[in-house]
Amino acid sequence: MNETEPLVLAAERARITEIDLQILELECSLRALRAERDLLQGRLDAFKYPVLALPNEIVIEIFVHFLPLYPEPPPVVGLFSPIVLGQVCQKWREIILSTSALWKGAAVSLNRYSNFDRTLRLLETSLQRSGSRALSIAIDCITLYESVVTPFMQTILSHCARWEHLKLCVPPGSLACIQGPLPMLCSLEIPSLHQFTVALGNDASPILAFQAAPCC
C-alpha cells in the first residue's frame, strides 16, 4: 500500500461524513418547509371568499346583468362573453355551464384574421347550452366569401325554430340556405334590398327566406 493511501482514504471517509450531515440538514429543512406549506395551504383551503358563499340564484342574476341586455347578444368569445365568467373559478364555471339563460344570445364577428374553426365550435357549443330557449343571434361577416360563412349559417339554421331576434350581415347568397318556418322570429336586421340588388345583379331572384316568419 502506498504511504499516502491511508491519508486519502481517511479524507474520503471524512468527506462522506460531511456529506451525510449536509443531507440530513437538507432533509430536516425540507420537512420543515413541507410542514409550513401544508399549514398555509390548509388556511387557504379553509377560507371562503364571500362571493362564493352567495346562493346560486343570486350569482346567476349577477351574471345575467353582466351580459349585454337582451336581445343584444353577447359575443361567443371575449369580453362580455359567458366564457369569461367561467374562467374565474370552478364553481362559477359549473354555474355558467348549467344555466341556459346565459347562452340565449350569440354574436359572431368574423374577419380575415379570425380563427374560424374555434369560433364555429364556440358558436355550436353556445347554442347547445341554450337548451330550448328563444335565441338572439348576430353574425357579421359581410366581407367574407360564402364558403367561409356557410358553416356558421348551417349551425344557426339547425336552431331556426328558436330564432327570436336575428341580425345577419352576410354575403347575400348565404341567405338562400334559410328555409322552413321561423315561428318565433319577431325582429330581423339584414342589409338593405339595394345592397342585395347591387351584389346579386338586377336579374337576381327575390329573397323569400323570411316569408315563413309570421311574427316578423
Could you describe the 3D structure shown?
It comes from Mycena maculata. The structure is a single chain. The chain is of the alpha/beta class and 216 residues long. It has two domains: 1-47; 51-200, no CATH class. The protein has seven helices and four strands, in the order ααααβαβαββα. It has helices spanning 5-46, 56-66, 82-86, 90-98, 116-129, 146-157, 193-200, and strands spanning 105-109, 135-140, 163-169, 187-189. It has a four-stranded parallel β-sheet, with helices on one face. β1, α5 and β2 (135-140) form a beta-alpha-beta unit. It is elongated and about 110 Å long. Residues 193-203 have low confidence and may be disordered.
For the biggest sheet, the summary is: 4 strands, parallel
Sequence stretches where pLDDT stays below 50 over 5 or more residues? 193-203
> SSE string, helix = H, strand = E?
HHHHEHEHEEH
State the strand order across the main sheet: 1-2-3-4
How confident is the prediction overall: mean pLDDT?
86
Radius of gyration: 31 Å
Number of strands: 4
Shape: elongated
Assembly context of the chains: single chain
Class computed from helices, strands and strand pairing: alpha/beta
Query: How many angstroms separate the termini?
Result: 107 Å
How much beta, percentage-wise?
5-15%
The total tally of domains equals 2
How many helices? The count is 7
